[in-house]
Here is the input.
Amino acid sequence: MQPNLSVGAELASRLAESSTELVGCVGLNRFESNESIAERVAAALDTPIEYPQLEDALTPDDRITLVPSVELPHGAEVVSALVDYLVEAQIDPRRIVVVLPASTKRSGETNAGVGIAEVDSIVTDFRDELLQWLDSEIKVEIHDPDNEIELAYLAADAEGRPIVLNRHLVEADVVIPIGLFRTGAVPGYFGMFDSVYPRLSNRETQARFSDTKALDPRGRHRKRLVAEADHIGWLLGSLFTVQLIPGPEATVADILVGQVEPVRSRAIEVYTSFWHHQIDRPVDLAILVLDPGPSRQNWQQLGEALSGMENLLRPEGSVAVCTRMVDPPGDAIDLIRDAPSHEVALEQIRQSSLPDAAEALQLASILEKHSLFLLSGIDPYLIEEYGIAPVESIDELVRLADRFDATLLINGAPFPSITLHTGEAVS
Here is the structure.
């Protein structure tokens, strides 16, 4: 049985009546607005944060490149509303282009050598929806990191390496990133310019950002990469940004536009107020309900949800995940199945450059010390091959919780940020 969109609320109600102590319910605060997405975008553009009215900062001849994250909830509506604003500001629609990444994966190995035709279905679905919303004069293009004709030199980095980006960004007068804001503790998230760099660079740069050292959300290496991505934004002269704060179940909690740094500060405040939760002790069982999001759930989302979860668990604690995933694991996760131990699997994954290395690392880290249960649409016999215990129904999940003293329910994973009384934040 696959969980539906109300599984978080159903679990909260049933767990409250079970024998386990429900230490916390996170992510059940729904966001509702009487305004449409277009109206909310327009209102945000009318009141930018520490930035002049965007129409006053543009000229009709400006070449404008919009760079949205394809993970945006209501992404096509957001982009369409921004385009409408630009056209009303007398920008020639033929001078507006939307550039999408070839893949949602963080790794530079994704689609390597197979060409632009093998882009993620998530990307092509987003493009097709955009084309339905936008005027035919607006270009929507998918970046090809292997096509040198589509790449252009921007500058040299501190080590003398050439910085190359999609030509539409380098040649634009104005580049506007449209991002899905996240906390810093997310593997593979590189800040306010995450939709720009390295996603719209060449394969070599993407591979450098997918090094396993970059997957540690709290490591120094990742912080340097975030600073590098910010520097690329500065080199592009991209001072204006649009950032969405995610709400549960593919909603938008807030839309922030304006100058990059003030928007960053405000986004941290809004995200924290909406998604932060504190518990006073580690738990025996953490139940994660993956957010449905704008596209189908996948192993990357599961890996992000598991990031840092071991810090919330007691030494013998367990994790249960509810998801609508139907796709089998990738090559890096297969290493968990094939290795003689989780310790060996972790080392093999760290040495690999496989597209699913980030989620494989999170899975192997959890399985090394804890039990993992999974309610999904994947064949339960296949799941067992990876040392994961399949769960067939919500009823079975509630009975599982009855075996544990203290349970934490996290709805909308991987967005919640949870802090123990020690002060350590986990996202």
